[in-house]
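Thread: quick sanity check before group meeting

JM: Hey all, I'm pulling together slides for Thursday and realized we never actually wrote out the predicted structure for the chain we discussed last week. Dropping the sequence here so it's in one place. If anyone has concerns about the input, flag it before I start.
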Amino acid sequence: MNNPTPQLPIYGTSITLEQARMVAAAARAEAVRNGWCMVVAIMDPGGHLVLLERMDNAQFGSVQVAQDKALSAVAFRRPTKAFHDMVAAGGEGVRMLVMSGAMPIDGGLPILVDGAVIGGIGLSGGTSAQDGLVAQAGLAALVS
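JM (edit): ok, ran it. Output follows.
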């Protein structure tokens, strides 16, 4: 039996700069709380950069990685950890390594409001799990 294609959220109205700042501030606060120097990137639903913050002492290599994670999350309308898990499972999951723009590292999440993708957040600078945790903390700012 074939597995049905998962239902993906629709694209919505773009994240506002005010919302992006709120998400970034929450992510930054979580990173600071844990002593991690990170880069936060937030994209709109068209994959355009809305906000980028590089914390003091964050490695400059993380600037592009954070943007790539945010873009992947918005382009494919799913967390980048989904691609990470596909690669880790091996077999057919390894094929995603040749998918242009699919970042197989945790830390990228679509930003959803009312079930629609309004943007994406990408974090880089820590371990994959740390990046994912901080990205999730950023999203929590929109629902609290």
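AS: nice. The beta strands are 10-11, 39-43, 49-54, 108-113, 116-124. DSSP finds four helices and five strands in the chain.
JM: adding both to the slides.
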